[in-house]
């Protein structure tokens, strides 16, 4: 991987997480076929699922980290603006990544959101109220599993949510 410094030249990157994050973000924004999209969802389940497992088993500040997710969910429940709802949806998933306290999981997971940001915003702009309510219920299932300290149930709830979100997007013609 190459790092370009303006006015200086291009150099082999030194393993800086920001450079890796930019490369993953660029790659994820360039893919647009169905297989790559399915692969990306599967990878998100692995990354966010790992973050949820770590959070469910965590003893350090777990309650405060779960409460941040609950606060975001409560904001989603009361939000009528689809664009803001989409931002909150992304914020929920990014909070999961940040809560796991692992720099690599956090960095790779966040890099994937560069692609999803536009898709999520577009999907929520077209979504019905029922679709947004389904999203809230799916996020709530993740939180309930975390409260029960059941990382596997949280991962399964995440997988169900991402699969349902993909199906909703396909119904609206978004891939």
From TrEMBL:
Residue ranges constituting the GntR C-terminal domain according to the UniProt record: 39-164
Cross-referenced SMART domains: FCD
Name of the molecule in the record: FadR/GntR family transcriptional regulator
Keyword Transcription: yes
Keyword terms of this UniProt record: DNA-binding, Transcription, Transcription regulation
């Amino acid at each position: 991987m190459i790092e370009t410094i303006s006015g200086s030249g291009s150099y082999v990157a030194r393993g800086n997480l920001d450079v890796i994050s930019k490369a993953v973000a660029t790659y994820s924004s360039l893919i647009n076929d169905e297989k790559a999209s399915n692969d990306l969802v599967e990878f998100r389940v692995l990354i966010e699922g790992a973050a949820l497992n770590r959070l469910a088993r965590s003893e350090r500040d777990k309650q405060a980290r779960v409460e941040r997710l609950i606060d975001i969910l409560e904001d989603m429940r009361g939000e009528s603006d689809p664009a803001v709802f989409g931002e909150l949806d992304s914020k929920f998933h990014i909070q999961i990544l940040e809560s796991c306290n692992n720099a690599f999981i956090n960095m790779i997971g966040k890099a994937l959101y560069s692609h999803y940001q536009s898709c999520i915003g577009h999907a929520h702009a077209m979504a019905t109220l029922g679709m947004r309510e389904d999203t809230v219920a799916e996020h709530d299932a993740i939180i309930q599993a975390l409260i029960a300290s059941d990382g596997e149930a949280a991962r399964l709830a995440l997988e169900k949510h991402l699969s349902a979100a993909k199906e909703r997007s396909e119904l609206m013609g978004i891939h």
